[in-house]
Amino acid sequence: MAKLAVLIILGASLALLGQMFVAIRERFNASREVEPVEPRNCHLIENLENGSEDIDILPTGLAFISSGLKYPGLPDFAPDEPGKIFLMDLNEQTPRAQALKISDGFDKSLFNPHGISTFIDKDGTVYLYVVNHPHMKSTVEIFKFEEHQRSLLHLKTVRHKLLKSVNDIVAVGPEQFYATRDHYFTCFFLTLLETILGLRWTYVAFYSPTEVKVVAKGFNSANGITASLDQKYIYVADVTAKNIHIMEKHANWNLTPLKVIQLDTLVDNLSVDPSTGDILGGCHPNAMKLLNYDPNDPPGSEVLRIQNVLSEKPRVNTVYANNGSVLQGSSVAAVYHGKILIGTVFHKALYCVL
């Protein structure tokens, strides 16, 4: 009888593991392949060899690019090199990526940049906010951009108990921002289990020097975040749920959910086209290849444009798609005057004239 009970428990456990395996494959689009959609006028950007995880472009055409992210479970082609922030001037005939100098007093050896966001103050001062993971913790670093010196002056490090496992931020004031928490747990095994079980424990937090609070919750893995052109709405990508949440922003900084745009790809970072207000998403068409990296069968890349975001039927178009032969693991796309930059978690970066 005891042996029968053991067999029943073992059989039930194996069945449960089988169901979880199927669920994780579906969640990560393990069987999906992409049809190529590649503009003609594209080339890889020199000097960006170790990722270009997030990109933010100023109205002047200066593009900030975070590079060198070290993240549990993902490949790292330069484990001994600290992360960097690169700058590109998209007004140039042939834009080049240049690493920005960072002021003394900031520990550059531990710099592990993730999501970034810019804010332009009333006096024209440009601030750059950077999610940083020193020792795999989460901080937000605030820099002042000094354009003539092509450098970043470090102003402040933000830490808070609600700012854990921070993925991305969007600045909405000189010291105010929204931040996404992509995992509830910090241990890699527990975060994997969290993903497999589909727990909706992650959230969006608002930070200011006088108030820090959770303003939206119930995400599988809150990831990319950005604001509409008129600053009335906040857009949040839930990467493992494969959707984008449209949320209304209120005077007290709280967010109210309005709608969810469901997609068939894992959306990472978001940006907004400054000329149209469309959302652009850097996506992972098959995230299983991202986690189980094989250089002979690399993860592909995909960029979507979502038009008429607030309408009942938003229009979704594929701007770029590649099976990994050119660009692996796309995480972001941003446009400026008919030009597009496509960044990746750990690979290269692509520049195209549309």
TrEMBL record:
It comes from Fukomys damarensis. Glycosylated. It catalyses: a phenyl acetate + H2O = a phenol + acetate + H(+); an N-acyl-L-homoserine lactone + H2O = an N-acyl-L-homoserine + H(+). GO terms for biological process: response to toxic substance. Belongs to the paraoxonase family. InterPro entries: 6-blade_b-propeller_TolB-like, Arylesterase, Paraoxonase2, Serum_paraoxonase/arylesterase. PANTHER family: PARAOXONASE, SERUM PARAOXONASE_LACTONASE 3. Its cofactor is Ca(2+). Binds 2 calcium ions per subunit. Disulfide bonds join C42-C352. Ca(2+) 2 binds at D54. One of its GO terms (cellular component) is extracellular space. Ca(2+) 1 binds at E53, I116, N167, D168, N223, D268, N269. Keywords: Calcium, Disulfide bond, Glycoprotein, Hydrolase, Metal-binding, Signal. The keyword Endoplasmic reticulum does not apply. This is Paraoxonase. Glycans are attached at N269, N323.
